Request: fold
Amino acid sequence: MPIAKKKNASKSPDSSNAGSELPENVRRTVLPNGVVVLSEWMSGQRSASVGVWLGLGSRHDPVGKAGLAHLYEHMVFKGTAKRSSARISRELEEVGGHLNAFTSREQTCFYAKVLDRDQDRAATLVCDLVTGAKLSAKELELERGVVLEEIRGCEDDPEELVGDLFAEALWAKQPLGAPIAGTLDSVAAITGEDLRRHLERSLSPEIPMLVAAAGNVDHDSLVACAGEALQAKACTSDAVQKIPRVGGRIRSRLVVRKDVTQVNLILSRRSLGAHAPQRHALGLVNLVLGGGMASRLNQEIREKRGLAYSVYSFADFLLGAGALGVSLGTEPAQAAKAMEVVSREIAKIRQNGLSKRDLRFAKDYASGSAVLALESPGSRMQNLGKCQFLYGRPLGLDEILATIEAVTPDQIAEAIEEHLPLVSADAGWTLAAVVPEDFKEELLP
Reply:
């Protein structure tokens, strides 16, 4: 039986899209209190993903309280003024849905996926989580223990630990340099008053809030639910995050010696932010360098030489900041050789640029990945939220694909020249590594 599109033609008075360019099937409403509501209807779906986003992430944690946003995310599920922890867990599971949340460096999102008929139930619940957390002292001590175990687990996992070390090396004492979950000391220092202030801050006018939904969604019903449930929140920022200033020093090396048998390292440097025009070109260069199995690093290091069991490159674009890097996991005896190949492949790209074939490969890879990444309601919901916070509007798939295709060889050459220098500490590269206690190799020139 074909799935009918929900009747969504009538618009509430404040939801006119006049003067804005929205992707097909996307609707946008600004509530009287300033909260932005976005929805994307997807053909052929019987589900809906609903999320409430806050413009607070780990980079906004107070000094000495790293992990506050993450711990708060945990605490919300321990009960609200309207719902107990047990009721929160049961409310969507009894209709086959699920509820979750995540804290990133720049946002916190509480979200649910349900059958389309239960959209209003999900929207009401996630709105309650954001506005009504009880934050009891007893639950704080219990959940603090859970988070401390999570941090200890990360410290016991070299691949996880090197990710935190890489951020610390690259951003030093800035909030971006702290682990999202915080440290054992910083989480132990968080008080109930800290959590209450975080809740008050999240509901203050200067912190943007966004409701996003995708799937077989009814926009007008979503607006009605959000308008009723989020009356305690006021926004003045139209769900766009300000670009913070990023500076400070870089640590050229941050090496931790542990009782391990492998070397896990990340070679990285500061790079472009999410608003930089060159980010699209640099992203394509990254795909050729180490973005997948066919990339130069994987072929040269893993497939041809067997020097590592894991190798890839990455490009992270944040507000006012970014990172370009290479992650490597290998035997201690192979680490120096593997790093030599990394340096050599970067030098080749810097000297020769990308061929037409390379650029075509990177564009097809990026385009295909973008399409596949946006197939589900959950991924579409996240795309709505992230794009609205970063750019002030949703970016549709057609626009994303057109942007990828429009990158020129000259833009690629400029990105390589300015943002992919030869590997050395003098060029801004930094090395974070977890190594065996007796490891003595020097891996960064």
Q: What stands out?
A: The two ends are 64 Å apart (CA to CA).
